[in-house]
Amino acid sequence: MKAAFGKVWKLEQTGGSIIGGTFKAIQEKNKAPKQPRDPRLPKPKGQTVGSFRKGLTMLPEAISKRLGSKVKLSWKLSGVKKLDSGEYSLTYETPEGLVSLRSRSVVMTVPSYVASSLLRPLSVDAAGALSQFYYPPVAAVSVSYPKEAIRTECLIDGELKGFGQLHPRSQGVETLGTIYSSSLFPNRAPAGRVLLLNYIGGATNLGILSKKESELVEAVDRDLRKMLINPNAKDPLVLGVRVWQQAIPQFLVGHLDLLDAAKSSLRDNGYQGLFLGGNYVAGVALGRCVESAYEVASEVSNFLSQYAYK
């Protein structure tokens, strides 16, 4: 709970229960002075979900544009070692050949299994801990149906409304869940159509790795016709199928113990200045990854301050 739902865990710790912690958090929020809001941000009504006009890809593209030539594409880190000077030597495989760089600090936001491979020459214990995080396969299947394909009982005022649906295994369906993309965000589908993003696979369905894309679409369509789509509706328009062989990390019991073991091993073996980040450290939600990025940046700044000229 602490690893996967840290904010909920904190509510119980501070208030004795989730409800008590919620009331306490509201009271503290009301007492604290309100921070000025960036006028460029939208003003949503109440709690809502957010995205970008052309999808989440806009965020890394904007960051890349801001950083300019500092961003290197198609550079694969193949080796890390610490020099006697205290700096790190990083070796990259690039389109132009091998390139070596030196840096006082390194932040690894790659998946834990990639970090494990890179760090094994530095610390077997850290690598061993990082190798134990589990990433099951998941496929994202985006399909579109005409609005009249939606079952009448699933419509509200003639529209498909809501965030989407999650499917417990007891329902006898393969699809993990469905997000109503065109209901959540504007301009996701033309008039008269709906866009549905479906996830299939997970820890209890490793068989998706042996299926063709067409078979995954068939499985999703079959499931949707059991609960959302009229059984006699036309075949969907398939907009994309992406299979992630190792998708998002599972926050299993002992997750934080493994993470602490990896960090402690690096620290105890003299690898200060080497920081671990990414969704297995922070949590899988985009917002939490962004918050964690600021936290790691602060750690890096504090570390490097000891080398600044006084």
Q: Overview of this structure, please?
A:
- The structure is a single chain.
- The protein contains ten helices and ten strands.
- By secondary structure, the chain is an alpha+beta fold.
- It folds into two domains: 74-134 and 249-306, FAD/NAD(P)-binding domain, CATH 3.50.50.60; 138-244, Protoporphyrinogen oxidase, mitochondrial, domain 2 (Polyamine Oxidase, Chain A, domain 2, Alpha-Beta Complex), CATH 3.90.660.20.
- The strands form three sheets. Strands 6-7-8-5-9 form a five-stranded antiparallel sheet. It has a three-stranded antiparallel sheet with strand order 1-2-3, with no helix packed on it. It has a two-stranded parallel sheet with strand order 4-10.
- Helix 1 packs across helix 2 (18-31) and helix 4 (112-119) runs antiparallel to helix 5 (124-130).
- It is globular, with a radius of gyration of 23 Å.
- The two termini are 43 Å apart.
- The mean pLDDT is 93.
